[in-house]
Every structure is written in structure tokens, then in C-alpha cells.
Write a structure and sequence with these properties.
single chain, alpha/beta, 9-stranded parallel β-sheet, globular
Length: 274
């Protein structure tokens, strides 16, 4: 059974103060989550050292950092025809890798690949993405940080939408610091099963996102999450499963999802794992 973390989809620079963020993290911890996943962008209103000290003090590890907001806020895109844009995207990911290493966290990369509107020629875009990520991996190898590469569905990214594509990219990059992850929301769009990809990736699975079919809190859609947990158990996945809720503020998403998971896992005889 994986440990559970909660994803704050809100950008860190959206919190009014560090005290506001501290209050949010305290509440996530009190609900019973074992960790938290955060969006990492520059221009924070507080220091990374302060954040590291705080999460250690309340024993709520940051298990991974998301990077997609750097595309949507600044247009940093790995597939861009503009070499300057690609260089800035690589530099940002290298900076993020350094931060992640301070927390012993994973670095999630997916949406910074961009869309087909950025590069309509998919083969050209994929070649640029691979070249850029090889540069980033050189940095992650120095820091000991692992990239969890996320197959994002075709409506939200233009490239490497399936586990098959992500695993092929991982084979070409050929580094222990670059591994595929899975997200139930994207799997529901792109894959024929919610469990077969888990078995296929097996022990190469770097990270896992739990997101309902409708992007709302867990249990409000149609996904068979009991089968997902059974598959994760079968491959002996011992990382974190991060709960992601798009359609509600963090408090509603975190509270409703943990309640659903508690009931689900009690039914499977795993109540002690929450």
C-alpha cells in the first residue's frame, strides 16, 4: 500500500503569506496525509530554506514538485521552435532539480513539453523534448534528483501522451534518474485499462497520481480505485500516491478525498495505512 500525499494545485506564489501556507500544510497533515506535493515556480514570497525547515518540523515531507505551471505562466516550453525558449525551460528545470534535491523530492515533468500549437510537427517536437531532457538529466544525476515523467493526455499536452511513449523515451534517455509515472486521470483518457499500465511499468514506476475521472474529489467519478490500489500492491509499489483535485479549492478536495479513501481502504482491510 503506497503512502498518501495531497497535491496543492495552487501555485506557491498564490498564497498571501508563508503563514497562510503553513496553516494549509498543518491542515493537510492533520487530515492524515503522509506528504504533500507542490507546484514549483520562482518569485516565492518566502525562502526555500524556511519551507524545508517547516515541513521537517511537522513531519510532512514534500514528496515531489510539479513543474507545469512554468509553461502556463511563462511559456517555458521544451518543444518550442525557439531555441532561447527551450534553453530557458531547461534552465528552469535544472533550478527545480536543485530545489527538489534539498527536499529529497521527485521532479514531475509533463506539461512543460507544450502543445502541438507550439510545434505542429510531432516528430520535431519530440526530438527537441528528448534533447532538452537529456540536458536536464545531466543535472539531476549530479544532484541525485529523479525526474518522474508524466504521460499527460492529448487534450493537455501535445507529446508523449501514453505510458508506451513515456517508457520509450525513458529507454532512449537511459538514466536511473528518469523514470515514468502514471496518473489515473490521464490513464482514463489514453489507456484501455487503469490497471494494465501499472503491471506493465512494474518496478520502474517512479510516482503515482490519484485523480478522479471528472477532476473532482475522489469517489465522485467512475474510476475503480480499489482495483488501482490492488494493482499497486501487486507490483509492490512503495512510493507515494498523490491525490489531485482540479475542480475544488484544496480544503474541499483534501477533506472529501481522505474520507473516501478511509472508507475504501477499511473495506479492503487496510485502515491502518491511512
Amino acid at each position: 500500500m503506497p503512502s498518501l500525499s495531497y497535491i496543492l494545485v495552487e501555485r506557491l506564489d498564490s498564497f498571501g503569506s508563508f503563514e497562510d501556507l503553513q496553516s494549509v500544510l498543518h491542515h493537510i497533515k492533520a487530515l492524515g496525509y503522509d506528504g504533500v506535493e507542490l507546484n514549483l515556480t520562482p518569485n516565492l514570497r518566502f525562502g526555500i530554506d524556511a519551507l524545508a525547515h517547516f515541513v521537517e518540523s511537522i513531519q510532512l515531507p514534500i514528496v515531489s514538485f510539479l513543474t507545469g505551471a512554468n509553461y502556463f505562466s511563462e511559456g517555458l516550453c521544451l518543444s518550442s521552435p525557439d531555441a532561447g525558449v527551450r534553453d530557458r525551460a531547461v534552465s528552469r528545470l535544472q533550478e527545480c532539480a536543485a530545489v527538489a534535491s534539498q527536499f529529497g523530492a521527485l521532479l514531475v515533468v509533463g506539461q512543460m513539453q507544450g502543445f502541438l500549437s507550439d510545434e505542429p510537427d510531432q516528430s520535431k517536437g519530440e526530438a527537441r523534448i528528448e534533447s532538452c531532457l537529456k540536458r536536464v538529466v545531466e543535472t539531476t544525476e549530479q544532484y541525485g534528483t529523479t525526474i518522474a515523467f508524466e504521460p499527460v493526455n492529448h487534450l493537455q499536452a501535445g507529446f508523449h501522451n501514453t505510458l508506451e511513449a513515456a517508457m520509450a523515451l525513458a529507454r532512449r534517455i537511459d538514466s536511473p534518474r528518469f523514470k515514468p509515472m502514471l496518473d489515473t486521470f490521464h490513464m482514463n483518457v489514453e489507456e484501455v485499462s487503469l490497471t494494465e499500465p501499472i503491471y506493465r511499468v512494474g518496478r520502474d514506476l517512479a510516482h503515482f497520481h490519484l485523480c478522479e475521472s471528472n477532476g473532482s474529489f475522489l469517489g465522485s467519478g467512475h474510476l475503480n480505485l480499489a482495483a488501482v490500489f490492488a494493482a499497486l500492491d501487486k507490483i509492490e509499489y512503495r512510493g507515494f500516491a498523490s491525490v489531485k483535485v482540479y475542480r475544488h479549492a484544496w480544503k474541499v478536495g483534501a477533506e472529501n478525498s481522505i474520507g473516501y479513501l478511509q472508507n475504501l481502504l477499511k473495506g479492503q482491510g487496510r485502515a491502518g495505512k491511512i
